[in-house]
């Protein structure tokens, strides 16, 4: 049934499918690991049991998400050998050591301290346990650093030469790792992970505030999440703008596709808000645009000229429609996060942060927004790089293994079935865990006397009574 399909397209679809499942788990676990470290630090500092209860609640969810992230990542590494062996052969001398360093540093660090973080509080003591939690969080950040170094090198390759066998070999490891796009992409991805976690935590807190199941812990979760949204969302928008300027410098065709600029604009380019890209006619149909605003954003001048895809050979142009729409989905999610963060600041100022049901309902709906933004951002980045795997040096069509379309199609169907069953079940289990936040162990102030083991404290005995001594 797949004989009429192109093996390269099927292999791309298969990798896109597996990486889309994979990226949502690291994006969540990176932020959640840091959140756990903050919770434990607050517990040690303030000696407030609410933070310890939240730590124990979220560490179980972290363990499940971390496990699914590891499993889904292993599958992708196999595809480098099965579907992309030519790419692995040519780029292996550069990306192989970098991925090896990720295992030797980040993965070993996470694996070494994860068990202590999950099970060791009563065995190693609070301070050593906190060190283990910090090491796990630090390990997730190191892992993101190495993986982003690999992917950034594929986007903006530097510090290499090509040997007689056509392989990319490193000449300067510092230039390889700290390639032109790496700092921007690392900051953008880590902030995205923090926002993703913040909106999941915020949605969980808002859900329980609406149900009034655990008000003390729900208020703490929701407040912390909204602080993160209000502070980090504007920083992320600025970081994304800087990343876009870097992309314009090194991957101009990607920005042309993001903006929908089929034609060059010598006197200032419009910002196309929405429309339907028409690659056949080289235009955006039904475009809603703001004149010259794209030139102002990208060149800081209303009349600055911007080149279009008419300056790029057609066979080297990325698929415009996918990049155009995924970029707008990412922007929509980003500005929605900013809006919710600002709204929460207003409610906090008015003292209604924990009582505004409308805010809580919107926060619940915004829970998956971080995942949507991360997926849309990665689609923009990876599809915008086409038709290259190593930008400007190795075409995707020249990177695939000598494998037939039926074999790739059969494995793609198997992945779809297994992934939706396994990771669907895991995601459902995580949602069940989030919905089962235990009720507060301490009552709210003003609720009456505290009852312990069913006994109501009576009046105090005088010191001279029979129990005085």
Provide structural commentary.
This protein is mainly alpha-helical and 469 residues long. The chain has a domain at 180-259 and 313-399. The strands form three sheets. It has a two-stranded antiparallel ribbon. It has a two-stranded antiparallel ribbon with strand order 3-4. The protein has a two-stranded antiparallel sheet with strand order 5-6. The chain is built from 14 helices and six strands. The chain is globular and about 65 Å long. It is 68% helix and 6% strand. Keywords: Cell membrane, Electron transport, Heme, Iron, Membrane, Metal-binding, Transmembrane, Transmembrane helix, Transport.
As a whole number of angstroms, the C-alpha radius of gyration is: 26 Å
N to C succession of SSEs: HHHHHEEHHHHEEHHHHEEH
**Shape designation:** globular
**pLDDT under 50 segments (min length 5)?**
441-469
Treating each run of at least 4 consecutive H or I residues as one helix, how many helices?
A: 14
Biased composition (Low complexity): 457-469
InterPro entries: Cyt-d_ubiquinol_oxidase_su_1
GO molecular function: electron transfer activity; heme binding; metal ion binding; oxidoreductase activity, acting on diphenols and related substances as donors, oxygen as acceptor
Main location: membrane
